[in-house]
């Protein structure tokens, strides 16, 4: 039993089969001239991309996911043509011509930015983002620990002062409520008395 191909597979196959060359009057001839001199295979691909992008725009009503598919297809082609980013020359040509061609295509007045380019993040960017997040988390933890020890010591001092004050007040109130005899009261009165001295000039 033969499985029917998905819409994405059909689109990918049709885009792979398109071989298009630019007309002499095309607005992209001048832009792609440098690519034609550097890498004829990428130049042919760029010419085909101009046609594929325009056709995809026309098909978007029938296929609402066509922009996503087109981005995925182009990302696959980028991996193939740049050897997963390892071919420095082709990588530079891809960024300088193919990616900029997409920007020109989406900026045409007939298409009005209908499909924006979605470039997957590189492993380096992902690693940097992850490292930065871990660094910020670590920094925040150390900041909280430092502040916690400072706050803890302040709270500890504040609590001790409150407890000491409460104990002193409680002892004074207890002595007053029990109506300690003057003899016993005088013995403890010196210990409980608060002496304030004023210096006047």
UniProtKB/TrEMBL annotation:
The keyword Transmembrane helix applies. The chain crosses the membrane at residues 124-146. It comes from the Eukaryota. Keywords: Membrane, Transmembrane, Transmembrane helix. This is PIR protein. It comes from Plasmodium ovale.
